[in-house]
Amino acid sequence: MTFHKPIWTVVLGCAGLLLASQCKPAVAAALMGGKARGGAAVRRINLTQWTDQQIKKDLAALAENGQFGLARKKLGRLEDQVIGYMPRNALPTLRHADFARRLVDQLSSISNPQHRMRMLKFLLANHELAATLVFLNRPGQQNVAQVYHRLAAMHRELGPMVVAYPNLTAAICAVLYKPLTMQINENTVHSPDPVALFKYYVRYQRAMYFGIRNVPARLLIYVVDSCSSIPSMTWALNKYHGDSMVGQVFFQVPYDYNTYLHGAKKEVDIKGYNLPNILRYGGVCADQAFFASQVGKAIGVPTAYDVGMSSVVGHAWVGFLQQVGNEAAWNFNVGRYSEYRGVVGMVQNPMTRRSEPDSFMSLSGQFIGTTQHQRWNAVVLTDAALRLLSFSATGGDFSPRPLPAYVFGATAKPLVNSVPAQLALLKRAVHQCDGYAESWMLVGYLASKGKLTLAEKTLWAGALMRLCGQRYPDFAMAVVQPMIMSVKNPNQQNQLWNRAFRIFAPTRFDLAAEVRMMQARLWRKAGHYNRAGRYLMDVITQYANAGPFILNALHQAVALLRRQKHNSDITKLYEVTWARIHAPPRMADPFMHESNWYQVGKLLEARLRGQGQSLMADKVRRELESAGNPVAGN
Predict the structure, then answer these.
(1) pLDDT digit string, tens, across residues 265-289
(2) How far apart are the C-alpha atoms of 293 and 278, rounded to whole Å?
(3) What are phi and psi for residue 132, nearest 5 degrees?
(4) Which of 200, 241, 279, 451 has its CA 20 to 30 A from that of 146?
(5) Domains in the chain: ranges and CATH
């Protein structure tokens, strides 16, 4: 991040006013934003210079008086002026203003005044670390004061090392501001000491698969959120160093059939829950997913412990960042059992500790190959759109103060706050770094609130599908779904769904089926039950093996048949559906009871028995029993 050096030197010396008093009158007047003595003309300066001077003046005053509340107001007004008057080539100016406002806003959360001032001085002296952390933090969703307390503690123990590795330092502070705890079935695991973790990654940085120093902090948060001891991580590094397919490690942990078939206590719980023991004694899917995710973090591969619910019980699997040529993308398919393809996954955001769909994080693979400035620019442009949106949401008037007459390089009139203006900022954010999910999600939010025209929805949905449809289809679906659902006209909405379907159909059968389910929902709501039924039957006949949603489609189709008084067709529907689902391997399998084949078979058995067709029902039951001895749970 490039700042004019005087900003930092003046702030650190707390001498903004003193500097102005020692300058020539005209220059001093320009610095102070007034006129020279005797009414002489003030030297003209461009918008960037003027903004930097205002930042310098406000931060210098803050360094002297410690009035963070006042500084926040001043810097907020300044950022609004930049948003209102900046031309297209003034993006660095907005970055400077947004950084200063974010910095002061975040440090304001520190209750101890002395600590607040020490942290201000430290960050202003180390602006790459400062900007990395300031633009990474998510105020309102994490305890930012604790983040800076963690930074202070790490600086005390590590000294200049924290500055030498800004991405690593920022990621650890943003994630381990308090100890991280995970519950893996009956076992509770904890994060290691942050300083020890920092030293581990620095010591073995050359052995890390993606490296450490140049990996974006927004990806490193999925590396440093480890819940294994340093000895376990070192063991994993020695064993799995250089393994690019972390998902396959999931299957190296033997499944503990004996435990769940006979109710015995797991051997790994008796011997001690750590990575070597999990590999040796085995476990269930939760242990397999935990093991694979922790191995990835130990070798420098971003991973996520993913959980989801089928119609019966919960499951766990692993997502990992996979290198694809010179790029990278998240893979949530390799490290999971095939029975659970199509189950919606949830991961814990390491910074906020909140559960969110794994689709939201998938787009972060786009950060590979971007520059630090591009990532920061995406943040500040999205911040600008959010500031405009906040005025609209509260009914306030966005009216930035006029710039001084001696400032040039700005627009003649201030920006008019409108949805097109907000979209223009978000479009620039996407052009800077299309991996910043918040930009796309804000567009989706505007669409869901009815703020976008049909043309705007079509344009943005098309852009999103072109970028994400093949590489990040889960994220594309997550954002485009509320956008398309907000289209009121059923025919127009159906056209947009068909476009999405054409993109998903070749490779993502589960998402294609989900689109058809949305179309069935659309026409059922519109009262066109025959059209709704056709889409449901499309799911049943074409995507019976694509995911657990087949059960939902079946239940909805049955409801439509009953609504239309076609009860006699229900049994046939069950038979057709069951015949199309592939039966699992005929062996004792803890997942048999959760398979679509087993559950639809049980529905068919119950239906036949209820109609008095006991012989047919017994035949179905015997076929289900011959598949194995199912057990519930994993």
Answers:
(1) 788 888 899 999 999 999 988 999 9
(2) 13
(3) -60, -45
(4) 200
(5) 181-353 (3.10.620)
